[in-house]
Design a protein that fits this description.
Blueprint lengths: L10 E6 H13 L15 H15 L5 E5 L7 H5 L17 H11 L4 E2 L6 H14 L3 E5 L13 E5 L4 E3 L1 H8 L6 H8 L14 H11 L2 H6 L7 H9 L1 H11 L21 H10 L3 H6 L15 H7 L21 E2 L3 H14 L1 E8 L9 E9 L2 E6 L22 H12 L5 E4 L2 H9 L8 E3 H8 L8 H9 L6 H5 L13 H28 L3 H8 L2 H11 L1 E3 L1 H26 L8 H11 L17 H9 L3 H25 L1 E2 L4 E2 L2 E3 L9 E3 L11 H8 L1 E2 L4 E8 L2 H10 L2 H9 L3 H10 L8 H14 L5 H8 L3 H14 L1 H17 L1 E3 L5 E3 L8 H37 L5 E6 L2 E7 L3 H14 L14 E6 L2 H4 L1
Parallel strand pairs: 1-2, 1-4, 2-3, 4-5, 7-10, 8-11, 11-12
Antiparallel strand pairs: 5-6, 8-9, 9-10, 13-15, 13-18, 14-15, 16-17, 19-23, 19-24, 20-21, 22-23
Helix pairs in contact: 1-2, 2-4, 7-8, 7-11, 15-16, 17-23, 18-21, 19-21, 24-27, 26-27, 29-35, 29-36, 31-32, 31-34, 33-34, 34-35, 35-36, 36-37
Length: 946
């Protein structure tokens, strides 16, 4: 492979813009930036990835000449040669469509020419410019991973994939195709391409094609001498499909004589106009790129926003300085180290006098059940913060170069003893950021911190759609301050140490600053809650959850280690059987876990038809592709799918759960994210119990491994069809409300109403269709999406939806009202008043607007369901306590709560929990006009209980 060492000032970089749009989109989808939106709500993850790539080319590769080439449209001259060319291409993802014009804006912001040519593909324009450039004495770098462009490689043309820093030259093409660049077209013509619907010759893959071309010299020579081929089937296919091969050759060969819209010399790069580039980056909130450029993260003055939601989001920013105007800037602070009893007592006395105390804990781990307390930070007034070290082990440095003295710090037990009364004092408001974590750390030391405000939760209530509610992010946005990074005190990478090994003098400012920042954020956020009338959501629904969720996580749930071990053993045994069957069917061994090797076997050696290729030119072995092939009767594909499913279950659950058992408790302690989704739904991690398969036998086996402690039973209480009930209630659909009141099967009733048949004449097929429409329509399902679920035409699916809305016109009115509320306010509200921000509702781009409208329809339903679950969870512990019941709430999964109940208390606990859950919606005087039903079950494991 070549490297970049021979770059010169006469080198032209031709960027495959269309290819990189998709690569950036999918790369970002699998990163922590997937789903990015700009302040107007427009998806921008692909724009961000593309912008990074352009910056990399200019900065790291110093491209002296550059142009970005895009496809003009789907159809071009190749469709005249072969009408079905590219007919198999998947639909462009909805959230990618609005990003295409923004990517062109990005190119313009960098002042790089962006070209396209009607009737031609981007590859043709690249081929033409590559030829013209080399004829003019220039070297060419084609910036792409598309194998179709490898036919252009020669001594003066090479390829670069900047995402992988990978260069491809003459030898690289041979490594990929088995032939030199001049014969790539012949190999592609034989092998075909299912993604672009290039027919090729059935049964011939890349490897076989390369062998044939190397033996016969060219495609035409091979076809002329096809009678000489020894293998009967191969000979027959080459003869029968010779014309297909010739057509394929025309389709894959790039046209290097296309009209050129711009002269080569106009591609010379120069520093972009910084104001234009910075404005583009600020507009789309690309803060990390702005930081790299040394530019401010936002414009110096606010400007009018075209979208009401954007205007609302930015409105409070002007007021954030006011609550802190009388306090010193953070950078001017000198923090206090508390390492004697007298100083600690003065801080406790001050907290009691002021009635407020910001607190932050420093520990050895992010997992509370495994973390050890290292220190506690306190802040009573912005600018006045302190740090109490209790568990540092790093020796203190001295001026003579020694470092053997252990740090001076108070005994942990003494600090806990002194702080406990204040931290449990109802008259002192405690403030923390991500208070759940600090509550858990202190609870393990015997302190139940109360009452407590959480600035992370406050931020979430104000804008659940924000990218991040982290302290660092809020400090930057609301305080204009960048807190000290953990890496600055603990090191990076392999040299990073746990906080107990950080010297106290280094730990002081880092730790105390956290408490200072948290108090300042509280002074900004608390007034905003009142100003935006969101106090009831925070005070009545979200804040009470903090100790509830904290206890659930600390409690964890017991797992049967032997059952998990046996399950892993069983899965491993089944995998070995499947492995042998697959090898026998393949005729050789290969790595079944390798998508590349699976693709080479299926589409190369075996020549299976119906495959699809990624934009990068690799064969896809996604589940959808393989399921289609399995349905066609290919046994080996069916076995590979079985193998994948078992391997995933084994690695993700039966193996992983064993590793995630806390050795001290013998239980699994999942982490619930309560400030993560726009609508208020929870997610969980480490492990993600919400993703355990529900309807499969293997999923049931995994649930069987979750068991109660000895002398206890697991209780599951689950809301029944809660979002359908809420749709009927919030939309005022009288027929459906009455059905829920009467206990009628809602899907059978819907089928009867929509399809005009008597209840008794509703067939299982009609009920299935009605069920799909019932659940789909509240998520804004399209005719295309419904057609996939029901395996009917798009026209039939659209007809189902029209009939549904005609029969239940109230739902249409609800949808129109939700969309209008979003357009007017930039948000919709749940029944209890939570604001669900809807970004992009007034966007000029139709695709963005349609996506936002679907969100506007569903968010009040999903958000109200989430609020009801939160209300239930906050109320249940007190209800159990009042009735003298000892059950413990362990898990929340979708619409289900799991409890560990002492034997003999199951009936009373079940009745208590059901009563609370079924009454939860009535908070704030809400009357749904129909019942919510909670169904309970219990057993010796989770599977039995659910």
């Amino acid at each position: 492979m070549a490297d970049s060492s021979d770059n010169n000032d006469n080198e032209l970089y031709l960027v495959d813009g269309s290819g990189f749009i998709f690569r950036a989109y999918y790369a970002m989808a699998y990163s922590n930036r997937g789903g990015m939106t700009n302040p107007e709500g427009t998806p921008v993850s692909a724009v961000y990835g593309f912008t990074q790539m352009l910056l990399k080319l200019l900065r790291d590769y110093h491209a002296p000449y550059m142009a970005v080439i895009f496809d003009a449209a789907r159809e071009n001259f190749r469709n005249e040669i072969y009408a079905d060319y590219k007919a198999n291409r998947d639909e462009t993802p909805e959230d990618l469509k609005p990003q295409f014009p923004l990517i062109r804006d990005a190119t313009e912001a960098f002042d790089i020419p962006a070209l396209e040519l009607e009737g031609y593909e981007a590859d043709d324009l690249i081929a033409t410019y590559a030829r013209l450039a080399t004829e003019a004495g220039k070297k060419v770098v084609i910036v792409s991973s598309d194998k179709d462009l490898m036919q252009l490689v020669n001594d003066n043309v090479r390829m670069l994939d900047p995402m992988k820093d990978k260069w491809v030259d003459h030898d690289g093409v041979i490594e990929k195709f088995g032939v030199p660049p001049s014969r790539v077209v012949d190999v592609q013509a034989l092998a075909g391409d299912s993604v672009d619907n290039v027919p090729g010759v059935p049964g011939i893959g890349i490897k076989t094609a390369a062998q044939l071309i190397n033996e016969y010299g060219s495609l035409e020579e091979l076809l002329n001498r096809a009678e000489e081929i020894k293998q009967p089937k191969r000979r027959e296919k080459l003869i029968d499909h010779a014309e297909d091969a010739r057509i394929s050759q025309k389709l894959v060969k790039l046209d290097d004589d296309a009209p050129v819209p711009m002269a080569l010399e106009e591609f010379k790069t120069h520093d972009p106009e910084k104001p234009a580039l910075v404005s583009f980056l600020q507009k789309h909130d690309f803060k990390s790129i702005l930081k790299r450029l040394g530019a401010p993260a936002s414009a110096p003055s606010s400007s009018a926003q075209s979208d009401n939601s954007a205007a609302q989001d930015s409105a409070p920013a002007a007021a954030i300085d006011d609550p802190l105007k009388d306090y010193p800037a953070i950078k001017d602070n000198t923090y206090t180290l508390i390492n004697d009893v007298a100083t600690l007592q003065r801080w406790i006395d001050a907290a009691q006098k002021e009635g407020i105390l910001s607190i932050d804990t420093e520990t050895t781990a992010l997992t509370p059940a495994k973390a050890s307390l290292v220190g506690i930070s306190l802040c009573i007034t912005p600018g006045e913060a302190a740090y109490i070290p209790v568990g540092h082990q790093a020796p203190e440095a001295d001026l003579l170069g020694g470092g053997d003295d252990m740090p001076a710090q108070l005994p942990k037990a003494r600090v806990i003893e002194m702080l406990k009364p204040a931290l449990e004092d109802e008259g002192i408001l405690k403030i923390a950021h991500n208070a759940k974590y600090d509550w858990q750390i202190l609870a393990r030391e015997g302190i139940e911190m109360t009452p407590c405000d959480d600035t992370m939760m406050m931020s979430y209530v104000l804008d659940g759609a924000a990218h991040s509610h982290s302290m660092d992010n809020l400090a930057s946005e609301m305080l204009g301050h960048t807190p000290i990074k953990y890496e600055e005190v603990a090191g990076k990478g392999k040299s990073q140490v746990t906080f107990d090994m950080v010297a106290i003098d280094k730990a002081l400012d880092y730790a105390a600053e956290d408490a200072d920042v948290t108090l300042r954020l509280h002074k900004v956020l608390k007034p905003r809650l009142a100003a935006e009338k969101m106090c009831r959501i925070y005070e009545d629904i979200d804040r009470p959850l903090i100790p509830v969720i904290a206890r659930m996580e600390l409690e964890g749930i017991k797992v049967d280690t032997q059952a998990l071990f046996d399950m892993s053993t069983d899965f491993e045994s089944k995998l070995r059987v499947l492995e042998k069957e697959i090898y026998d069917l393949a005729g050789r061994e290969f790595n079944i876990a390798s998508p590349k090797q699976v693709a080479e076997l299926l589409f190369g050696e075996m020549g299976l038809q119906g495959g699809k290729k990624t934009k990068g030119g690799e064969w896809s072995t996604s589940a959808s592709v393989l399921e289609k092939l399995a349905d066609e009767g290919h046994d080996i594909v069916a076995r590979i799918l079985d193998y994948r499913q078992l391997a995933k279950l084994k690695s993700t659950y039966s193996d992983a759960l064993q590793a995630q058992i806390n050795p001290s408790t013998g239980r699994v302690h999942t982490s619930f994210a309560v400030a993560h989704t726009t609508t208020g739904r929870f997610s969980s991690s480490d492990p993600n119990l919400q993703n355990i398969p529900i309807r499969t036998e293997e999923g049931r086996k995994i649930r069987e491994a979750f068991v109660p402690a000895e002398g206890h039973t697991l209780l599951s209480v689950d809301y029944s069809q809660v979002e359908l009930r809420l749709a009927a209630a919030l939309a005022g659909i009288s027929a459906l409300k009455q059905a829920f009141i009467d206990g009628v099967d809602i899907h059978t009733l819907t089928a009867s109403q929509v399809f005009g048949v008597a209840i008794d004449d509703v067939t299982p097929e009609l009920r299935r269709s009605a069920k799909a429409v019932n659940f789909g329509i509240i998520y804004g399902i399209s005719g295309f999406g419904l057609s996939k679920q029901l395996n009917v035409s798009v026209g039939e699916a659209n007809d189902f939806i029209k009939k549904y809305l005609a029969r239940f016109p109230e739902l249409g009115d609800y949808m129109d009202g939700a969309k209008q509320q979003a357009k007017d306010n930039g948000y919709v509200t749940t029944a209890h008043g939570r604001k669900c921000t809807i970004r992009g509702i007034n966007d000029k781009n139709g695709a963005v607007r349609a996506f936002a409208e679907r969100q506007a329809i569903n968010a009040p339903l999903q958000g109200t369901a989430a609020d009801i679950m939160r209300i239930s969870m906050a109320r249940i512990p007190a209800a159990l306590f009042d009735e003298g019941l000892r059950a413990k709430m362990l898990l929340q999964v979708h619409d289900e709560l799991i409890f560990e109940v002492p034997e003999g208390e199951i009936d009373a606990t079940s009745a208590c929990v059901k009563r609370v859950m079924e009454d939860a919606a009535s908070l704030h005087g809400i009357d749904l006009g129909l019942p919510l039903i909670a169904e309970a079950g219990h057993g010796d494991n989770w599977a039995q209980a659910h």
